[in-house]
Specification:
Layout (H helix, E strand, L loop, with lengths): L2 E6 L7 H9 L4 E4 L8 E5 L2 E5 L12 E4 L4 E2 L1 H15 L3 H4 L1 E4 L3 E2 L2 H7 L12 H9 L6 H7 L3 H17 L8 H15 L3 E2 L1 H10 L4 E4 L23 H6 L10 E7 L2 E3 L12 H9 L12 E3 L1 E2 H11 L3 E5 L9 E10 L2 E3 L6 H4 L3 E8 L6 H13 L9 H14 L3 E5 L7 E3 L2
Parallel strand pairs: 1-10, 1-11, 2-5, 2-10, 5-7, 6-8, 7-9, 11-15, 14-16, 15-19
Antiparallel strand pairs: 3-4, 12-13, 16-17, 16-18, 19-20
The chain binds inosinic acid and magnesium ion.
Length: about 425
């Protein structure tokens, strides 16, 4: 097994970072293929936690080479800040020897952040992601590969400023981008990162030919995919399997395994339809107990029951070879648990995700109900996981009703469970087999 893809199967924040961190131990490379610093994951090193947005989760393993891939949009100032923080915490400077930026990746500039900052409709993270992808699709974007040429191209800089300022005025954004500022920014980016810019697709292709192990780390989730998500309440990139290889510049035939990360319930941050959303005590319980606040924006995440219509859709798009269930412990202590197996909207029953928000917004979930399982402390869950792994008990180590809940998911989706997360600790994960 050489190339594994890890993807969020819901609306993001499924806890991909933790699994990437675990799997990175056995990987030679961890590469991101889309998105930018709209993503966010928390890395725990001993008693310290670091929040990261751009640096791949594999950063915690020194033997792992890191790639920010072709399909990404990268804010160089955020990268600089993360690298500085990493250096302060660990003394290590990954960009000196093991972090590479794709020459095809696009650059997020101040202009893009300003434009994103006025979004009211989607509830974006405001990090400039959408406007940078818009420029890319309009064939107006700036890639790392071209940086060294355009920093001395006054005509290009002048044209870009004209266009940026025209857009800012049309949006009533009271800012102006001068040629001096833009030139200075571009020069800074070039000086700071030129040594890390590489043909990363070629590097990965060579690595795979040498039988090295590659992990492709998704950001956001399937339902935030620009094509397959709940459009328009989505992010601006293809978050799915099909883009994992394309977005790092290798072909799809290289993929051996696709692990779908599934939170044991559902969350969503930002606007848009969410049929299983709980606007009640149970929803609050999940938010509080699951610490469901965004890593990137700190926003409270909306919470709800597990939605199998969403997961079926996600599986059709991604062809998961296994599922990693996360945060099962959060459900502990609830008297009963619900799993959504369909929707009713406008007198019609849906078992597959409808494309239109007009249908999704009216969708009433059809639930199956199951008995809950007891609440345990973090320490008890950790001990349970450690025992399960040591004695190879797998899921049978879990309370019986938790096993039934997981069996139901496995049976209805027909995807084997790879692992189950029962707490924030690196070792609080039960591995099946
Ligand atoms: P954007 O990606 O900043 O353009 O935001 C578009 C939508 O995707 C908004 O609803 C965001 O809240 C959501 N989103 C973007 N990145 C993430 C993520 O990493 N986790 C969860 N939601 C995200
Ligand atoms: Mg996140």
């Amino acid at each position: 097994m050489s190339t594994i893809v890890i993807l969020g199967a819901q609306w993001g924040d499924e806890g991909k970072g933790k699994l990437v961190d675990v799997l990175a131990e056995k990987s030679d490379w961890v590469a991101r293929f889309q998105g930018g610093n709209n993503a966010g994951h928390t890395v725990v090193i001993g008693d310290r936690t670091i929040k990261l947005h751009l640096l791949p989760s594999g950063i915690t393993r020194k033997s792992c080479q890191l790639i920010l891939g072709d399909g990404m949009v990268i804010d160089p100032w955020v990268l600089e800040e993360e690298l500085n923080r990493w250096k302060n915490e660990t003394g290590e400077e990954p960009d000196k020897d093991r972090l590479f930026i794709s020459d095809r990746a696009h650059i997020i500039l101040k202009f893009h952040r300003l434009v994103d900052g006025i979004d009211k409709k989607i509830g974006t993270t405001g990090r400039g992601i959408g406007p940078t992808y818009s420029d890319k699709i309009n064939r107006f974007g700036l890639r790392f590969a071209d940086l060294k040429y355009i920093i001395n191209d006054n005509e290009w800089i002048s044209e870009m400023c004209l266009s940026y300022n025209r857009t800012l005025r049309s949006l009533n954004i009271n800012e102006n981008i001068t040629e001096e500022d833009l030139t200075a920014d571009l020069k800074w980016i070039h000086n700071r990162f030129n040594h890390t810019i590489a043909n990363t697709g070629l590097m990965l292709d060579n690595a795979i030919k040498m039988n090295q192990k590659v992990l492709l780390e998704g950001a956001q989730g399937c339902l935030l995919d620009i094509d397959q998500g709940t459009y328009p309440y989505v992010t601006s990139s293809v978050t799915s399997r099909a883009n994992a290889t394309h977005g790092v510049g290798i072909h799809p035939g290289h993929i051996d395994d696709v692990i779908g990360i599934v939170k044991a319930y559902t969350t969503r941050v930002g606007h848009g339809p969410f049929p299983c959303e709980l606007k009640d005590d149970v929803g609050d319980y999940l938010t509080e107990k699951g610490h469901e606040f965004g890593t990137t924006t700190g926003r409270r995440r909306r919470c709800g029951w597990l939605d199998l219509v969403v997961l079926k859709h996600s599986h059709r798009i991604n062809g998961f070879t296994s599922l990693a269930i996360t945060k099962l412990d959060v459900l502990g202590g609830l008297e009963s648990l619900k799993i959504c197996v369909g929707y009713r909207a406008n007198g019609i029953e849906y078992h597959n995700l409808p494309a239109s928000n007009f249908e999704l917004e009216n969708a009433e979930p059809i639930y199956i109900e199951m008995d809950g399982f007891p609440e345990l402390t973090d320490k008890q869950w950790l001990q349970l996981a450690e025992k399960a792994n040591k004695e190879k008990l797998g899921l049978s180590a879990l309370p019986i009703n938790a096993q039934k809940y997981l069996n139901q998911i496995e049976m209805l989706l027909q995807i084997p469970i790879h692992s189950v997360g029962v707490g924030p600790d690196r070792d609080a994960t039960i591995h099946v087999n």
